[in-house]
Amino acid sequence: MFFSLAIDPIVFSIGSLPVHWYGLILGVGALAGLFLAIQEGKRFNIPQEFFMDMLLLGVPSAIIGARIYFVAFKWEDYKDNFVDVFKIWNGGIAIYGALIGAIICGIIYFRYKGYPFWRIVDICAPGLLAGQMIGRWGNFVNQEAYGGVVEESFLRDKLHLPDFIVNQMYIGDAFHHPTFLYESLWSLLGILLLMVLRRQKFVRAGEIFLSYFIWYSIGRFFIEALRTDSLAFKGNSGLASFLNGLWSPMKWLGFEQGYLDPAYGNIRSSQLLALLTIVAAIILIIVRRVTGQPKDHYSDPIVSTKPAAADAVVPESAAHTPQSAPQVRQPEPENTPDELPKE
Question: Which of 33, 58, 62, 217 could form a disulfide with 98 if both were Cys (CB 3.0 to 4.6 A apart)?
Fold first, then answer.
């Protein structure tokens, strides 16, 4: 018999207040994303305080959006236990909801600071993937967002995973797909791809951010079907068959879809949203190119329409610098006898 070696989700406690791995890992992911944004922002002379304030506003907005999105699809589980809506440390957030919340916050914040939306989100795109890449390990600790049942040999011999991951994937009475790991690695590849792409001269404003959506959504479409906890709804059977058909190449690689209770739904919402996001992002790139909307390239300077007030303040050192003494005009010398004008 195999005994699960599940990681304690609580790191430590401060008095009666427990500190969860989940929140700690999400915090590390947010800081990693902030670091990447600040480093890239230096190329455009954007102060790091701008990104730090953005993080302070964006993270709560993202968490609220992620929780609202999740609870909306799980309302039957929360309507009689409304207090549980706020227990986010128990898990239960949706990345697409987080993106919606963060984008709404970004639109308001960037406008307030006078920066163009598309230029700033381009800078932030790799940081978003970094946050997601690290944040998925919070699901690992909580033993959530995992996939369908697999053999132990699949994890050890085919994927060559270390013991601490294999052991943590023993949930209930079986081993499961480490979908958190699949998505984390996909995000890592995406970071590298975006960093290469943003150095290309042909890239226009907004296209790095839209490429982020395309890349992430491709991975999410295929990984989502492996999971057993997908948010879902009952939809058209033809649409469900279409989505399953698009996913079928995964079967060639030896993967099987995770169980989805037919009574709960037949269409995974994240799969459908991922597909719609890919199509919408591609169309938006084409339309913006055809209409000439993205006049700026990624590498062009970024200028705020609302310069910081500090820029208009005379530096203290200059304020105390004594003014130069006025120049006194010296009288012109009189002509000497040797220099008398000749008649």
Answer: 62
